[in-house]
Amino acid sequence: MPSTRRPPRAPRGPVPTPGAPDEPSNLLIVSDLHLGGPLRPAPGLDPAAPLRVGFGALRQVVRLDHALARFVDHHRTHGPRGGGRWTLLFNGDSIDFLHMDLRPDGRDAPAPDADEALHGLAFEAHRAVWKMGIIAAYHRRTFAALARFVEAGHRLVLVVGNHDVDLWFGDVRAAFVEQVALHADEPEAVRAGVRFEPWFFYEPGRAYIEHGHRFDPYATFPDPLAPLAADRDGHLAPNFGHFGLRYFCNRVRSFPVHDLDTWTLGDLWRWMKRHSPLVLARAAWQTVAFLWHYARATTRDRLSRRRREAATRARRRARLRKFAARYGMPLARILALDGLRRPHIGQSLPRLAHGMMFDRIMLVLIVVAGLVAGFAADDAETGTWLAMGVLGGSALAWWRLDRTRPSADIHPQLGRIARRIGRLTGAPIVVFGHTHRPVLRRLGRTRWLNPGAWEHVPRHTPHRADAPCDCPARYGVIDGPADLPRAHLQRWCVRRGEPLEVEIQA
Fold this sequence. Notes:
- By secondary structure, this protein is an alpha/beta fold.
- Among the domains are: 26-216 and 410-505, Purple Acid Phosphatase, chain A, domain 2, CATH 3.60.21; 358-404.
- Helix content is 43%, strand content 12%.
- It is built from 15 helices and twelve strands.
- The strands form two sheets. The chain has a seven-stranded mixed sheet. A five-stranded mixed sheet has the order 5-6-7-9-8, covered by helices on one side.
- Strand 5 and strand 6 (207-210) form a beta hairpin.
- The longest helix has 31 residues, at 277-307.
- The two termini are 44 Å apart.
- The relative contact order is 0.13.
């Protein structure tokens, strides 16, 4: 197993890295790998037992590791069609610090405290460093392939997403680089060839690339550019998805943790029908516990930010100026890009209640009370009008509240956001990840690309060798001359270890 000792301390907080390439990059874009995501104890296994992984989870890890290593090695030896070198861009959620739920036993890291033994490791920098070492050990084929890729002269860029927001910590970024360098003959070449982007990757007149969780109220942070807790040093800020995973999913092991943003009430009902009343009672209790922990943390964080409002605003302004200088953009344009973000679901208690649909429960209670009052009225006509008024007013309120409700599925909105970013930056190609849905679409002068996700690869049943490929692995390619870039959406055949013909080109 690779060493998990704490690497040398890196600068606090990521800042834009200087040195944009003089020549246009040939970009190879992969989103939502979720390396380490399957590393969770199976239902029935003791989650407090150190490093216990079920066979199913281990098989998923091996499948993803094998597929990605072959992908990286193929492009290491097969350069872009027009010549030159690749820039392999992992567009967020590359390392799944969030879903990974193994615990140290106290030998190579402090043992979990009582709260961590119950709910999973805290969202702290030193815990993320430990997770980084374990994930790299299970995915050593991938890390070795990345070392060979960078040593061959290609570049590796990691854009930070919500599942790997831990890369914001300097120690965690250093741990990633050192885990790759462990497999290199020339470690310094690897250290020089890996770059991190905490917000977006940008090449003027060519491409703008970010993960996209800034636009998801359930996945973003109080401040996406500095996602640290205002009242606890070395901790991530409260995040709805993070708290839901830790205080609900880690306790209700049979509840799925993948693609919940696309769940409907029907999906929830089908899950409930498959489980006993005891499991449902525990799920209801954990829902209350999760919301209590999240509401308390967001309130505490919000009050702390208000007390330091002037200093926080000054630091944020300085960070935005660094981005403006890095990309040669006017500060006003950077401010406009920053202004596109959506407020997080815990911005206020009413917004949290609205997002959790508590308003619907209140409206149902109002309707029931109105109908009861109508039937109990002495005058039948008065009772009828009262019941109709309550029903009509509640229906109108239901419609108005749903129109303003924070959306859990932001994929339909990303096209509009891509057009706005294209107009603001002049980038003809705008790339997002996050939603796991591949798309390449022309929207006016802007081309919106989402390469989909590799998270589903290890759960997909491989097709026969002689059957048409239905592998879910896709990736984006941006190539062509500086003044006329081309965007491609391609499928990677996991079974045969080779790219297929371009699916969509724009």
